Amino acid sequence: MVELKNITKIYRQGPLEIPALKEINLQIPQGEFCLLMGPSGCGKSTLLNLVGGLDNPTSGELFFNGNSTAAFTDREWTICRRTEIGIVFQFFNLLPTLPVYENVSLPLVLNKISRKETDARVLELIGRMGLKDKVRSLPGTLSGGEQQRVAIARALVHSPRILLADEPTGNLDTRMGREILALIQSLSKENKMTVIMATHSQETAAFGDRIIPLKDGRISS
């Protein structure tokens, strides 16, 4: 379970204080496909960054399965992301000098998974993403939609318990977007993988178990 207790995040620019999240209280059971919905600037990306340990709350506390993350060191967060959390960023964050196979396999290499198992997992996911003929291609030679699919495969390859996704189908055409959402939905159910996805798309919302509406940094009713 992911639990946020009284989470507030304030960004400071000189003397200015810009509140991004205000007293968020939220419980997300293991295996739930949860959608954060709301307009740009409502706090969706900030919430994902806090759950992924990419940023720290100004106040409040984040729990995984009842255990507080308040004292997590940078190294502990790194290990957590490497083993327990998959993240799909809005801007891909692929390594430009590595071909598709190496980009997707990176989490498994870091976790010292055997070459045989790595091959099996990577090639299966690349195939399911419709990229079988792009295994040796560099990111710069791919379309935006293809790069997004590579990023999604990389986020899923280590079988994370939590998937954080920020508008993951925004660069995909409608058909491919539906296929990727259906894949994430099926993996969530098969593996009891918690999915927390930011979106503003009503069509995407149809794939989730629950919608959390956000407005001006708060959960709205």
Characterize this entry briefly:
With 221 residues, the chain is of the alpha/beta class. It contains 7 helices and 10 strands.
Question: Could you please describe the fold and organization of this structure?
Answer:
The protein has 221 residues and is α/β, with parallel strands linked by helices. It is built from seven helices and ten strands. Strands 6-7-8-3-9-10 form a six-stranded mixed β-sheet. The protein has a four-stranded antiparallel β-sheet with strand order 2-1-4-5, covered by helices on one side. Helix 6 links the parallel strand 7 and strand 8. The protein is globular, with a radius of gyration of 17 Å. The two termini are 22 Å apart. The model has no long low-confidence stretch (mean pLDDT 94).
Helix/sheet category: alpha/beta
Give the overall shape.
Answer: globular
Major beta-sheet overview: 6 strands, mixed
Q: What is the CA-CA span between the terminal residues? A: 22 Å
Cα-based radius of gyration, to the nearest Å? 17 Å
The tally of strands reads 10
